[in-house]
What does this fold into?
Amino acid sequence: MTHRLRKFLGTRSGQSLSRTGHTIPRHVAIIMDGNGRWARRRGLPRSAGHYAGMQALRRTIRAAADLGIGFLTLYAFSTENWHRPKEEVDFLLRLPSEFLKTDLPELKMRNVRICFLGSLDELPAHTREAAGAALAETAGNTGMVLSFAVNYGSRSEIVRAVREVVRESLAGRLVLEAISEKTISTYLFTAGIPDPDLLIRPGGEQRLSNFLLWQSAYAEFWFPRVCWPDFGREHLLEAIEVYNKRDRRYGGIKL
It folds into this structure.
């Protein structure tokens, strides 16, 4: 870590990272991975790892808001996670309700707007109710947009978008020749949210696991070995430092 970021770590909460000469990514996406491995290494049940991951979630949201990140998207529960043991699935789907019950007042105070990506209709009633309340109570907020990907799978998201585009085209509301990448993007769960600049996956695995496949075409990736429950402000700052060292050319060259 550079001297400038070490210095920033000691500054008071809310000071702009731009004062260190770093560019802050507008949109950061995180695959919250490694809860099970974290627990196993400590001889604890997987549920303990998921609970510890919720503490990391709090730290990361606070740090992102303090740093001025505009959009933070977190992969909370994938469409493939339904294949896990029922006890673990039930525990995972209780966590959003618990988190929002305790943390929604702070998120509202911080002017955070909450969004959800995924097929919420298939979730338990208590999860849907908590999500609905969070959406309604933060709809007018103008600060950081915090998106939780719950029951989300990028391939099914793209299929869903294509079906909608075909349906609109057959109804005569879309001209076939005018369909573009922008058209597809407006039918994704992330419509209105810019593509991620930086995608982080803690835990050491180096794959996207069906997360934001369309949207991450030009995202910068960072795969730290630290498991998600140990992730915090310092790791987010390190990720931003790594991001600032990348040369983003979007397929072109700099002359």
